[in-house]
Amino acid sequence: MEGLASVHDLQALSALLSPNDEDEEDDLQQVKPVARMGPGHIGSPAAPSGKNNKEGSSAYVKKNSKNIWDEDEVIEGAHFDDLTDPRPQPEYEIVLKQSVGTEDLFLGLSRKDPSSMCCDSMLVRVKLPDTKASDLVLDVRETFLDLRTPKYKLGLHLPHPVHKQEGNARFIVEREELEITLPMNRPMDCISLT
After folding, report:
1. What's the pLDDT tens digit per position in 31-49?
2. 88, 138, 153, 182 — which has fewest CB within 10 A?
3. In this structure, is residue 32 part of a structural domain?
4. Domain-embedded: residue 35
5. Which GO biological-process labels does this protein carry (predicted)?
């Protein structure tokens, strides 16, 4: 009867699987302090709770302790998000455009390439079926586009900052589509990376 274990074998197996508590304490004393560290030990040690820590242990100190977050931490356009608004989001697409002349195309004089780094404007096409141009309400910010109609709403975080005052929009009645052209704000364009 090799398949069945004897009582002695079962007791030995039980002793292996559940060691005595005294053995565990001895093992913990032999372990180095670094090995006993856990995720809570990462970073600078916390100040004792009894002491008054005026400097603060973190690099970020809030200006007003009653504020949950600072204005810089809130994503632009978050106040336009209305979860109770049942209007659907219309179909849209974003196309990056660049001005290319013959000197760029044939001679490569301006060092432009087809990448998005060389694009100078952004075209946002929004399909708005059964909508009139007079019903549109459009608000463009540096990184956010807000479009509202009686049937649709679109709150779009733009992939690149834009010049909000220099853009233009046109409604194409035949296609029932709004085209918004926005020049991109690229402050680092004056620096040559090559």
Report:
1. 666 666 777 777 666 655 5
2. 88
3. no
4. no
5. axonemal dynein complex assembly; flagellated sperm motility
